[in-house]
Amino acid sequence: MYRYKYMLKAELCAAIIFAPAAAMAQDAATAALPMETAGGDVAAAAAKQNTSAAAPVKLPMEAFAKLPFVEQPSISPDGTHLAGLFAINGQQRIVITPLVKDAGKQIILGVPDETSVYSVRWVNDNNILLGVYSLIRVESDRWYVSRLLSVNRVSGEVQRLLPRMGGQNAADVLWVPSDGSNEILVSAQDSIYTNVEGFWPSVYKVNVETGTFRRHVPGKFDVLDWGADADGNVRLGIAYDDATRRSTLLYAKEDSRGFRAIERANLREDERLNIPFLFIPGTDKGLVMKDNDDEKTIIVETDMATGQDVRTVFEADSGDVESVMLSYDGKALLGVETSEAGEKIWFDGKLKAAQEQLEAAAKNADVDIISFNRDQSKLVVRISSPDNPGLIYIYDTNSQDLAQFASVNEQIGNRRLARPKLVQYKARDGLEIEGVLTLPKGRTGKNLPFIVMPHGGPWAHDTLTYDYWAQFLANSGYAVLQPNFRGSTGYGKKFVDAGKGQMGLAMQDDVTDGVKWAVEQGIADPKRVCIVGASYGGYAAMWGVVKDPDLYRCSISIAGVSAVRREVNDFGNSVRERLYRDQWREMAADFNAISPINGVDRIKAPLLLIHGKKDVTVDHIQSEKMHKAMEKAGKNVEFVSIPLADHYFTREEDRKTLLSSMASFLAKHNPAD
């Protein structure tokens, strides 16, 4: 979520994030992309994923540090090219690569320094759209800035879209055409001053090939967000008043720009607007994700004109609906993804049939359709398992041929690693907690050196999928528990709300109770327990050795938050300042009382701090200050500051430093052998 500020020099918005952009293009000829392709039928290709090693073999650290071959892969509408974030020479690069012969050249672009690519999508057969953001420092504060880039696969030319916009957010893509044309709809701010008209975002028509643009819908006072239907009609706006914490949904009929208020929500009372993600063409009806009476997230059809629900479109047997998959033209709901281990359920006949056929062939693996072209004749499929990172395939739904595109991690290949499983245990107040337990392969599963690894967020959850940190630790001989403590998503609103007021308290106790459960089960050796985590998990790792100093033998915090007030309670000059303050006050009554930096005197266990200096999510200073406080108190602390690492360690060298530092520290303070 972006924070809109009252004060920011407008020229910095445009200049800082785009300063490296002119130097992004690289000579593709000097960086060969190591792709592997092989044709074959479904059963033969999928059989590779079912290969299992006869005996466990300990792999070197470098195998786990290797970057995934590709992330965010997206196939072109005509099915001839693939775009995504590829690992080349140990670094992520933006790549457009042909999938068929004589389809054109390969494009390779560098990612600007201290900039993250959060989305990769095709506009048409020849152009991709990149959403990027950066965190820039102005005086004593840091602000997120978002922008758009387009890349033409034929020329390789990079266009900076809306480059002169002076606001923080100029990258909210409302609509992309499905007819092959080049104009998209983008909502963008043109000022950072609330008394200037451009502060309230307007909707622009932007040509992704030429970069030209024109204003399509002018901004309205208090309206921060806009929405469009699948035909490019701007149909809704969302207004917000921070003084009252009230949000208003503005709605326009299909061929009208006459917006009227149709719904209001008091965010102070945790009310939510019913915002459609899909408009049913020719009607006032839309599909909405909302919570039902059991506080599960479901999909309903709603009459926008009356506000009445028409019918329930989908409700998962268990868990929440987390995301939806729409048709290429945006007019049909093809499927949903649920919180149940990221399961995808397809309604579209062609995609459902492909899923079922691939699952039948790959019986011991997970099949994930991650991208498809306009007519769903070409699919990008990942076949993986919780104990293997998997293979990427291109599947032809017409011929039913499956062609291997690449191994996600060629050093691991088809090896079966440690097999995770879901476990349940009760917290001390009786709340049922689910976690992912990974035991070292080939071990008895009794009296093991143990690591509890709470996830980041905290509004997230761990699932039964491949996790390179957990696998690395299990490969090193440790049992690993990843608890989905109260406040985690994926278990309904009631479970999320159970975390309110409990940050550092019951949320942390759920982690502790997971350790105690593992000890009671005979899995964990109570004298050999460490806590490891990143981001919020890094906070929990530090706070764990403050709150329960006799439980842990050591702690590793990666990009963790040591001073909670500084990190999450500084909302000065934000348009949603009062709302944010209210929300975080619900998480804890006293931020100082639950900040690890204020509890250093209670820490007994050695602490390792790891943080990247290019982190644009959690400031590097969080670990710096904790390190100084620990040293001043005479505590056992090590600090590994990685000069070029970002929050997600998207450089292979940085992952090597991360994992080797963890391994050395654990070998010293909690050896597995």
Automatic annotation (TrEMBL):
Peptidase S9 prolyl oligopeptidase catalytic domain span: 468-669
GO MF annotation list: hydrolase activity
Keyword Cytoplasm applies: no
Lineage: Bacteria, Pseudomonadati, Pseudomonadota, Alphaproteobacteria, Sphingomonadales
EC number: 3.4.-.-
SUPFAM superfamilies associated with the record: alpha/beta-Hydrolases, DPP6 N-terminal domain-like
Keywords per UniProt: Hydrolase, Signal
Pfam families (alphabetical): Peptidase_S9
Protein name: Alpha/beta hydrolase family protein
Species this chain originates from: Sphingorhabdus arenilitoris
Keyword ATP-binding: no
Signal sequence coordinates: 1-25
PANTHER family in the cross-refs: DIPEPTIDYL PEPTIDASE FAMILY MEMBER 6, SERINE PEPTIDASE S9 FAMILY MEMBER
UniProt superkingdom: Bacteria
